[in-house]
Amino acid sequence: MITRGEMPQPRRACVPAGGGATAYRELPGPGRWAHSLAGTAAFLLLAAGCALRVRRDLLARLRRSQEVAEAAQRALLRPLPARLDGLALAGAQLSATRGAAIGGDLYGAVPTAHGVRVVIGDVRGHGLPSAAAAAAVLGAFREAAYDEPSLAGVLRRMERALGRHVRDRAAAGHAAGAAAAGSAAEEFVTVLLLQVAEDGTLTALNCGHPWPYVLRARAAPRPRGALPPAAAARTAADAVPAAPLPVPAPACPWPDVRALDGGDPLPPLGVAPVPDGLEAGGCGRLGPGDVLFLHTDGAEDARDAAGRFFPLPRVLAGIAARQPAATPARLVAGVHAALLRHTGGHPADDAALLAVRSDRCA
């Protein structure tokens, strides 16, 4: 028999309450603490296991999504061959949609009996919604570039492919609402078609697209007082021996970066029909060692935090000056990295970059 003095007294914890009051809470005995801790530990282990399972599932889904995106990118923008008929090529794309590897920009190059034909284009808008139109236009180019004897014929095939895509999308948009149908009806694409002949002659058709830049190696200036090579050869026999002038060490070739002059462009595809009797215009020659740098407006229109545009010609000149023997791949990679730095890693529009260098003999 337990007397009053032997009764176990419950333990209490003093907890301050609001207004200066004090609340007391009875604590469980030693046995109850052990059961409570065991239950809490079991719950935490179960929660951790569930969290790890969910994390593994999410990572697996993310990997599958990335694989699908990479497959779609390879189908839309097939990797460019490193070389085509004496031309070295490299390209890259930057999507404005976070997590997307493809967007509304397109480029491609194919060897044909008429020369190497190159295309670069930009679909209205950006990100994944523009990828379908880019796929339609680029697919038409890849087929027509081999068959059509003229660039005008290639352009008309691309125009028809875009028209079919717009009609199909508009028909599907009517079921989704008037806004979707109207958006499809306003779709257009800027396109630049180039042909590099065997002798380097350039012909082009431009539908509202930025003209590319040409990088040429410009010889270093002669020292003051030095004669041109031809004049020096004529006077070599009659020259009076004299102390040689101090000549500085030869400098690296100075890069000459200029926009290709091809005249006024046509309206973008989808805005106005391609005119009848259209012929591609000549726009110079791509000589040995010259580099043609093509881009979409997402490159030059990119702004930094202060609202300044991306200085593409200056960036190209800087890369060429630092690396006179830079390959097209390094040139594209340098511009791509500079563009990301300029936009803080968050571009507002898609951008496509394509470099073509002539490695042919003179």
From TrEMBL:
Coiled-coil residues: none
SMART domains: PP2C_SIG
Originating organism: Streptomyces globosus
Residues annotated as signal peptide: none
InterPro entries the UniProt entry points to: Bact_Sigma-Reg (IPR052016), PPM-type-like_dom_sf (IPR036457), PPM-type_phosphatase-like_dom (IPR001932)
Gene Ontology molecular-function annotations: phosphatase activity
Superkingdom per UniProt: Bacteria
Protein name, per record: Serine/threonine-protein phosphatase
Limits of the PPM-type phosphatase domain: 89-358
